[in-house]
Design a protein that fits this description.
25% strand, 159 residues, six-stranded antiparallel sheet, elongated, 31% helix, 6 strands
Amino acid sequence: MTIQSYIDKVKITYNKYFPESLCSVQFDRNLYASIGISCFMAKDITECNHNIWMNDPLNLRFSVDHNGKAFSKDTTKETEIPDDLILTVWHNNYRIKPEDKYHVYASRKIPCRKTSGDAQKLITAMDKWFAQLKTQLQNDLDNDMIHKDHAELIRAKLA
């Protein structure tokens, strides 16, 4: 599997659960050659409050590297992806209603952890996390735990 086909499979996996949402997957060779993954509830910036990506209710960010090290500098999207990958979880939460009146939002974590293995194992792990995220979002929506700023967007994306 090439790096480009891995990128495509991650996007397909996320869109299986959230077909009208954005999953940005990029291979970057600049400082630390790795694959960065950011998942959003919005499809584009116009769906975010005040047209700011940071206002998206999801805060999901992952990275994939080669056994804890950067991919080699000569790696391209057409290069075969190695079998010893590590998927690191940087952010794994979304915004909900706060428990007290002094905060605007609270957050709920999605249980996930660093995973190592080949590309297919990482995709399987992400598939499991995305399924769990959808279930948790639906439960929080049903229990009126989603903040009013995000409830309409999440309701539309889960329909």
